[in-house]
Amino acid sequence: SKLTNLGHLEMTWRSRVRFPPLLVRILHKSRLRYYGKPEKKMDMPYQAYFEVADGSGMMSMVLWNSLCPEWYHTMKVGSVLLLEKYAIKTSFPFKTHPAPGDSQMKRFATIEISLNGRDPPTEISIIPEDMVKPEWGLPEVKYRFITRSELEDLPNNHSCDVIGLVTFVGRAERARKREQSEDFWLYRWAHAIDGTSDQPFILELFATSQPDVFERIHPMTYLVCTQMRVIRNLTENPSRTIYLTTSNESQIFITGRWHKGQPYSKDDKVKNFIQWTKSQSESDQIKKTVIGGYYPFPRPPESFLKY
């Protein structure tokens, strides 16, 4: 009876110092960001964004500093949270926004929920899924899965989710974040097939905040990648150079304990993919798989004259 909702918060936040408890579901989760600098002495300079929603709409939620190592890995997409003693701040204008699975959902973009370990220390409770009641009106997590045959028609920078059987995974490579920088992005290339096309998904997978998954991607695993972005090299033949890359909100899941209990297991395209894999011969697929090696992509032209 004492709960508030996101829509009411947006209307009343300026006139309050303390806010009633809030019940929300996590729809999206960003990678963990480290913002420490040598000249600034902070114990745990970490930050992570989440997109949370209730029956009134969707809003950003920021997890700060010491709460990150404590809560980041237990706050999963689909988790229901009860929040108390949180703060409300005006939104940071330059953050990325994931593409919502439900395009009709209202987004409250002017403010964000701030969760801190002090001033005041936020109280966070994760509600088990079997205790979540329908009358709370919390939205379900929705996805935007595409098949490989649908990829050809999608525009550059389109956001989507994919599932496929891994047929190739390259070695981990590094790229500088900026010129002359000592910071690097870690990434690897992978191919995954879903039976809808002769061509695989070509995936550029950057190491997100899931090192346990990133290191275990190997041929013959079922790979799910969410919030991927379509990259088309329009200067070349578009159909040959189309690939998908991870975004700030991408999550990666592979065969094993990682798929268990994930909301995407109810998606129709995921179910269709599982049915397709049951019709395949494992020994035939294994013969087509490759692991490791250098993978130049996009491919260079066949001759020097074309450079």
UniProtKB/TrEMBL annotation:
<protein>
    <submittedName>
        <fullName>RADX protein</fullName>
    </submittedName>
</protein>
<dbReference type="InterPro" id="IPR012340">
    <property type="entry name" value="NA-bd_OB-fold"/>
</dbReference>
<dbReference type="InterPro" id="IPR040893">
    <property type="entry name" value="RADX"/>
</dbReference>
<dbReference type="GO" id="GO:0003697">
    <property type="term" value="F:single-stranded DNA binding"/>
</dbReference>
<dbReference type="Pfam" id="PF17659">
    <property type="entry name" value="RADX"/>
</dbReference>
